[in-house]
Structures
1.
Amino acid sequence: MASTIFTSRKLAAKLAAKYGTPIYVYNLRGLEARAKQLLEACSIAGCLPRYAIKANPHERILKLFARLGLGFDASSEYEGELAVSIGIAPQKINLSSQQPPKDLEKILQSRVEFTATSLHQLELVAQTGWQGNIGVRINPGIGAGGTNRTATGGVSASFGIWHEYIPKILRWQKRSGCQIVRLHIHIGSGYDPKIWHSSINTALSLVEQLPSVTILNMGGGFKVARMPDETEAGMAKIIRSFNIALKDFRRRTDRDLRLEIEPGTWLVANNGLILSRVVDIVDTGKNGFQFIKLDTGMNDFLRPAMYGAQHEIEVLNQATSKKHYVVVGHNCESGDILTPEPGNPELIRPRLLNMAGIGDLVAIGGAGAYGASMRVAGYNSFPSAAEVFVDE
Ligand code: LLP
């Protein structure tokens, strides 16, 4: 895999001199290439790719993806409003949120495509008296995630309507006068690509129970390789397997389905990094650890502290010798660790890095997704890292 640290030492120094640190740096050219790669992969199946705004709602990224022809997945009415406010057509947005929108009737009238994620949300739709096409998110009873905290399907997940309640959904449809045209499932994020081949069959077995469905949205969750030992989901291979399954479904049922997916991570993760600076180096004695303290932390980037997520870290100096360091953030919080044990934020895992000095620049890769969008903003009253774009 290519390094996720896409800035040279020279460019990093120039950016730090111009903007200070810490900053998020996004690679416009990489974002465009990724979106085009996705559109190409999806074209073989006539699949509509939607960008999951929650991964990174930065307006420049939304505008770029809109210009390139992607649709959008909004996880709250606020993401939907943001997209519409920057000129994205409502009908390009599918809204499926855990929290019922405050003004549901306005959304239903606005041509945003609404997907109900609970029986209660279906009731709220019926109460508006609105009659039109609608989606339902179903919990298919299976879940998978790169970590146990990123699985969003199965008996311990609250996302979507439990699959055994499909008869209730059909009764609601008759009563409401609405037409359920979209089945939406999303079983988790960052999981083993092999699982996709079984999840499509599970999804199609649910579609069979909903005769009015013409659109199957397989959600997001496509894994990227943030570390050299990780494997990326082969998007073209997955879409091809979806396409084969849909063709088989059409042969069996004479029903044509339009396919949608909604990646977030796969599009933006490795086109974003954090550029920070070493503010201190401490140790805990000859049998202890060497700690690098950065001028960033969980108030900008939570993934390592939350999941034990692994990200490439590079000390951008010309040191020829290396040392094992624990890299920590600047928050007064013992969990503000950037080198946790893989998958276990409770433990630390020292990382072999260039010998560091106070003032050195340090880059953290794979931070384009769920970085700025998922930070503990304002913790210890630190200002949030600014977000800048380069065209690498
Ligand atoms: N669609 C739905 C309905 C979702 O809930 C999500 C993510 C996506 C699409 C996009 O999934 P992606 O392709 O980005 O994996 N904070 C975690 C990821 C949680 C994602 C939650 N839902 C992380 O940092 O890995």
2.
Amino acid sequence: MTTSEVGLGLRRIDNGTESIASMKNLGILLSGRGSNFVAIADSIVANKISDARIAVVISNRADAPGLEIARQRGLSALCIPSKGKAREEHDRAVVSALFENKVDLICLAGYMRLLSPWFVQQFPQKILNIHPSLLPAFPGLEAQQQAFAFGVKVTGCTVHFVDEELDHGAIIVQNTVPVLDSDDERALAARILEQEHVAYTEAIKIVLKGNFEIVGRRMVEL
Ligand code: GRF
């Protein structure tokens, strides 16, 4: 039997033809339709992301379609309502649930809440977000519409680490999408979304593999 390090402290045990890998637990936070969550879940099923499982899906909104999809897929799905709660009070409940589910990596997937600095500090370099523009262009809400209205010829999506500023942390993956003369906002947003699904899987693979360092703002693969 041999053992080998496979990134982020994962240890694989090879025993003849059998390979038992210790799984990394992903926690998904969402507020809406959940297509990025579904793309991540599908990538795990298809073994495009290996050595990982979705330990819990958490929504701040009970009516989030993504939460229902998680239930249908037999995943642990929790609603922790944010309405009427102070940000940090809500964050403390979410962080408790993430710790209870032994989450190693958190993926924000259309989670329409700013995380408090306290939340971010609980999981240094362990929280990813996806944003539908090429950051630092067009942070904030409706990034696709912002890009379309500005008249850029190329836009895209960004997967980045979450830090204490909005849409700001070190960039892991960016995929570009051309803006066509024939586009309207919906058509452009749909093509960006396709690339989001590809980029999120790629970014999770890179982060789970763990052979990178962050130099200043730059993520550099080793
Ligand atoms: C995506 O466009 C993502 O970039 C942004 O919120 C949207 C979520 O979509 N952060 P979905 O719920 O994953 O379909």
